[in-house]
Amino acid sequence: MCVESNQAILSDVSSGKIPIFEPELETLVNQSIESKKLQFTDQIKDVLEFAEVIFICVGTPQGETGKADLSQIESVAIDIAENLNGYKLLVEKSTVPVGTHIRLKNTMSTYLKDNIGFDIACVPEFLREGNAIKDFFNPDRVILGVESENSRQLLTDIYRKFECPKIWTNPATAELIKYASNGFLAMKISYSNMLADICEATGADIDSLIEGIGQDSRIGKAFINPGVGYGGSCLPKDVSAFIDIFDQNNVNNGLLKEVDSINRLRPHRIITKLKSSIQNLANKRIAVWGLAFKPNTDDVRNAPSLEVVSKLIEEKATVNCHDPQATNQFKKAFNQNSNINFYDDMYESVRECDALIILTEWPDYLSTKLGELKDKMNNPLIVDGRGIFKPSEIQKSGFEYKAFGLKENNN
Ligand code: UGA
To answer: Which atom of ligand 1 is nearest to 293's Cα?
Structure first.
């Protein structure tokens, strides 16, 4: 049983409609509603009547100073405490700073009316948007942060079918593991972006370099693709919150700050690359392919597209946008501007354009018909933020091609 306070979301999901684009999710939810395994309510009391274990999955967005905003966690804790009707295990699923389980415990104790027992555990989530169902059912590991035998028993039962490694620890460590994982992933991406920059400066080949380091099994090939940087609702906010956690504990966080600052500069570098061919963008028509922060999602939170499009508009260009899924979300997130056009057809979006910028590696773009693209464009210039084309092939097709890791005068 799921409790949701937002009536619009509740009404959608109760009728089997998923308000976001996430492969396989709608089918799974509908099957589960039909087989009566899944139900929804807006009443916390219903859930407390129904369940002994409650997973807290509310948002912990980035607050003004970078630290995680825990107000939704607090309000759920108060709601649960005021309605508690018997022992419950509360499980933190949301990404929360180390020590939040203690805060949760204190809030619960303050608002509890009777002396009813409860436990708090932390089982962080590691699924990726766009791959959420597969990741959920086939995790690399499950982290179980518990501090009582009862919690351990309940979670052993819930996770008994998962065959992956299970790491039992205390809640503080489990809370930290989530940030440490996302911080490490962000660090890999910023490191590869730094490598792309040195390749650009020296003429070394970024693709061979990535292959060369990735073949070392200690390094691995995953998450070292350079480009326009990491976006989304997780990596950017978690790196900021992790920086704050180090600050709060007076521990040096220079490495994390550099990871963050390398990432923040990536969208600007796309514009620099474009301007190295077109100095004055005023009245130029620029196509942007890929508004989502990554493929297979319609999420545009912290997507590089927001910054790139806004910079293009600032420079008085006209922007033609295309994305297979994220156009509506982008329209909601971006203040409407008369200099932006949206297209359903990727080839139509480049008509008469002076350049094409690629920001998301959607499969549709990987199989672009280059001849058709070139015929439609006014000027065959591609600035590729995800490095989806082979430079030699695309240049053979008559395009001027700029990508991260390619030496400027080679472009
Ligand atoms: C991330 C983590 O990967 C999940 O394990 C975690 O559960 C989730 O955050 C979360 O905290 O909830 P997600 O935000 O869905 O998942 O996206 P990722 O697949 O991690 O991609 C993040 C960004 O990094 C994207 O913009 C992507 O384009 C970029 N990226 C990824 C690169 O620039 N290079 C790479 O090599 C890989």
So the answer is: 26
